[in-house]
Amino acid sequence: MAKLTTDQLIEAFKELSLIELSEFVKKFEEVFEVTAAAPVAVAAAPAAGGAAAEEVEEKSSFDVVLEAAGDKKIQVIKEVRALTSLGLGEAKAVVDGAPGVVLEGVNKETADKAKAQLEEAGATVTLK
Questions:
Q1: Is there a contact between 121 and 79 (Cβ–Cβ < 8 Å)?
Q2: pLDDT higher than threshold 80 for residue 43
């Protein structure tokens, strides 16, 4: 197999659906025994005066995670489709595969709005 450049890989990933990309990441983690989780921030070194400089950074991007579809599964599927560009089958797969990420790396306002819409449809949602 010819070695692919980073740009070629990115172009190939752009053609995948969200579900296909998620399955790829899981398989990659299994094969290479790694995890794609964000690294944990290390506490800042003590300041010159001896006090620890603890700055709390406000999180700027959030993942909207569907924990459970609830009783109104069809309504939740409709909301997932409205929030994403997924087709009916892909949205159903996301809902059936709960818990799973519906939106990744969105801002606080978008995440809160998506959470409210999904909860109104009957789903259990968390922001990470």
A1: yes
A2: no
